[in-house]
Amino acid sequence: MIRREGSYRTEMRENMRGGQGKIKIEHLWQPEEMEHRARLFARLTIEPECGIGFHEHLGEAEVFVVISGQAKMMDHDQEVILRAGDTILTSESGHAVEAIGDQPLIMLAVILNHLQKENC
């Protein structure tokens, strides 16, 4: 299946999870298209000084991949700076993200469901 640039379902969220500003979310794939193995597979665009507030995903893991710009990320109790090419995996710990610098932050975000292993 192919989905072309410009055909993604797009939404704008304001003050997402208590963060500042607006976040553009482009849903690259829907959960049902991925057989519900992931709840979110999206490209996020966050303007400088805007971000997503601190929150948790119980029973899920979230992966962020920085495409361009810079992010200040809070992962549980650790603050880190991420740049293009960096990735972070959060799993059932609180996290937040803020765009820093003078360029928009563009990231891929994937929220994965924790799957229980079947007994062999």
Can you tell me about this structure?
It is a single chain. By secondary structure, the protein is mainly β. The protein has a single domain (9-113), classed as Jelly Rolls, CATH 2.60.120.10. It has no helices and ten strands. The strands form two sheets. The protein has a six-stranded antiparallel sheet, with no helix packed on it. Strands 4-9-6-7 form a four-stranded antiparallel sheet, with no helix packed on it. It is globular, with a radius of gyration of 15 Å.
Provide a compact summary of the structure.
The chain has strands at residues 9-14, 22-29, 38-46, 51-55, 60-68, 70-75, 78-83, 87-91, 95-100, 105-113. With 120 residues, the protein is mostly beta strands. The protein has one domain (9-113): Jelly Rolls (Sandwich), CATH 2.60.120.
Topology:
Blueprint: E1 9-14, E2 22-29, E3 38-46, E4 51-55, E5 60-68, E6 70-75, E7 78-83, E8 87-91, E9 95-100, E10 105-113
Antiparallel strand pairs: 1-2, 2-3, 3-10, 4-9, 5-8, 5-10, 6-7, 6-9
